[in-house]
Amino acid sequence: MKRSVRIRMSIGMTAACSIFTLITMLAGFAQAEFPERPVTIVVGFDPGAASDITARTLAAGAERQLGKSFVIENKGGGAGTVAAALVANAKPDGYTLVAIPNVAIVDTPLMQKVTFKPLKSFTPIIAHSAAEHTALIVKVDAPWKTFKEFIEYAKKNPGKVKYSTSGVGTGMHVAMEVIAKKEGIKWVHVPYKGAAPATTALLGGHVDACSAGIGYQPQVKAGTVRMLADHGRKRQPAFPDVPTLMELGYDFYNDTVHAILGPAGLPPDVLKRLEAALTKGVETPEFRSAQEKLFLDPVSMGSKEYERHLKEKWTRTEKEFKELGIIKEAATQPE
Q: Would you tell me which of 190, 245, 254, 291 could form a disulfide with 171, CB atoms 3.0–4.6 Å apart?
């Protein structure tokens, strides 16, 4: 009798253990089904900026692959570092991502203190576009017809020229720092929260020039602004008569690369799903069309490749900034 009771208890315990194991396994499977709700992409610039337009178009294509929608939130400021700081502190579950250029991870933190560790606080997912052809522009009725005339005026009138950019530490700001360093110019930098408001400031007469981010090209074609210099490695096909800074004797070209990142510590399976979905988004005709309209060059980097890119850029840019006298030491430690 006692033995029979012990057998029944043993069978019951075994059954209970089996049920517990099954529940645990099912819970594990349920947790692996990412995503269970919409994914938020925090864009580091205001609506209308290249980062905003590409993020929205990319998300639309990626939704079909991921099976859930993306929600876009704009958090402009600090050349993308405001959004970066928010996502750096987010839960690493894949539901909060950030769309920012590499300069928000490298250039700006080198120049000013930020609250995140540039090479430690993020999980790179993909890089998709290069904004190489930014430019120095002025209003079409400005007295300067050429880059040389503009520089000569700035040298003769220290502190008088005001120029706008989409933020401190952006490629456009660095371009003007490089010029100022070589020419001994003192001018006033007026940073904005994105390329669109920086260009609007020029059109409104609030500044004398704009070191403009991607998106100024329609204004050039419409005849409202004049390009004085291109920041690309080679001349822009759409504006073949405009010289590059490299041609004008400055060792600089804009290597701004737009990307999507998550907080550090994203689970491998979540990273894999996001990388695959966002890559599909890049391959859509709608995204390629958006790139073309924004004068962006296609870039294709996965998580590991973009992580290497950021580390290499940090080393190279820190060295360049010190040689140019832009910084003495990095304002932020990378890790």
A: 254
Rounded to whole angstroms, the Cα distance separating 321 from 326 reads 5
**What is the CATH architecture assignment of 135-230?**
3-Layer(aba) Sandwich (3.40)
> Residue 283's pLDDT is what?
95
Q: What is the mean pLDDT of the chain?
A: 90
pTM for the model: 0.79
pLDDT digits (tens, 9 = 90+) for 235-271: 999 999 999 999 999 988 998 999 999 999 999 999 9
Q: Which of 133, 217, 231 is nearest to 176 (CA)?
A: 231
Strands of the sheet with 135-139, listed across from one edge: 188-191, 162-165, 209-212, 135-139, 225-230
Find the mean pLDDT for residues 18-39: 63
Name residue 168's amino acid: V
Contact (CB, 8 A) for 231 and 254:
yes
What crossing angle do the helices spanning 147-156 and 171-183 adopt, rounded to 10°?
60
Q: State which H helix or E strand residue 201 sits in.
A: helix 195-203
Contact 221, 140 (CB under 8 A): no
The answer for residues whose C-beta is within 8 angstroms of residue 225's C-beta and 6 or more apart is 137, 138, 139, 140, 199, 202, 203, 210, 216, 219
